[in-house]
Design brief:
alpha+beta, Alpha-Beta Plaits, five-stranded antiparallel β-sheet, four-stranded antiparallel β-sheet, 10 helices, globular, disordered C terminus
Length: 274
């Protein structure tokens, strides 16, 4: 079966070996490909799966995509424990090692500059969610369904509309308060980070997260200051009221390397460098 070279990340030569049992896409162990002071972390993947036609077919297979993304992330996570990796876009593949080396040579200056800038730094993600509102009462008569009391008379149409307007105003006020908290939290965390990125709010129907996402941010933090950053986030949870603050990381600096986004703009996947 013909294989392609899958590239997970580019980094400097490792100061410590990767985990002996580490596997990547399809269970293949990652290998290190050296070129001019840089290392590409690669493995061999089936061409049938990662050629342009194969990837198009797999876009409909959510289980395959999820497994591929987990394997990709697993290699990046392992690299992050021993070095500063520059993650490349999911499904970045080349015909052979020569194609990988050509890419590394063409982008050598940019890679080295990014590695200098990100050395010793990690990314932390912080999200803030509103808690979903309680389920509406099934009995629309004077709001007594929750108490079990029997109303004297049914709610009129005018009273019902008035109640709906009041509920809407309360929801809007709660959302404004949540957004104000998220903005203040971002400003506080940004002051303790070297850089930050505000990402679009997550779509609940896609992420499966409860509530509305009012902050979805990434922060670049020196690894040796991470403990203080985590403690700062933990303290803000006590001030969040009915909001939910989620912290993830430490990650490789996906949001700050520029290479995953650059690859996406230029379509650097599905057999580039053939």
């Amino acid at each position: 079966m013909t294989g392609l070279r899958y590239v997970y990340a580019v980094c400097r030569p490792l100061g410590a070996p990767l985990q002996a049992q580490l596997t990547g896409i399809g269970g293949a162990p990652p290998a290190l490909l050296s070129h001019r002071g840089l290392i590409a972390v690669v493995s061999t993947v089936p061409e049938a799966d990662f050629c342009e036609e194969g990837l198009k077919a797999h876009l409909e297979d959510l289980d395959w995509l999820a497994a591929t993304a987990r394997a990709h992330q697993g290699v990046i996570d392992a690299l992050t424990t021993v070095t500063t990796p520059l993650p490349l876009r999911l499904a970045t593949v080349f015909r052979d090692d020569s194609g990988v080396r050509s890419m590394m040579e063409a982008r050598e200056t940019d890679f080295l500059h990014a590695l200098d800038r990100l050395e010793g730094r990690v990314e932390w993600g912080v999200k803030v969610f509103t808690e979903p509102p309680p389920e509406p009462a099934t009995d629309e008569r004077a709001g007594t369904a929750a108490t079990g009391e029997k109303p004297d008379k049914p709610m009129s149409g005018r009273d019902y509309l008035r109640r709906r307007r009041a509920d809407t105003r309360a929801h809007e006020a709660d959302l404004q308060a949540a957004e104000a908290f998220a903005d203040a939290l971002h400003q506080r965390l940004d002051a303790h980070a070297e850089a930050s990125r505000l990402h679009p709010p997550q779509n609940a129907s896609l992420s499966g997260a409860r509530g509305r996402n009012v902050l979805n941010a990434a922060y670049l933090v020196p690894r040796n200051h991470s403990e203080e950053f985590v403690e700062l986030v933990d303290r803000t949870k006590d001030e969040a009221g009915g909001l939910r603050v989620e912290l993830t990381g430490p990650w490789a600096a996906y949001s700050f390397s520029g290479f995953a986004e650059e690859d996406a703009r230029h379509g650097a996947s599905a057999g580039e460098g053939r």
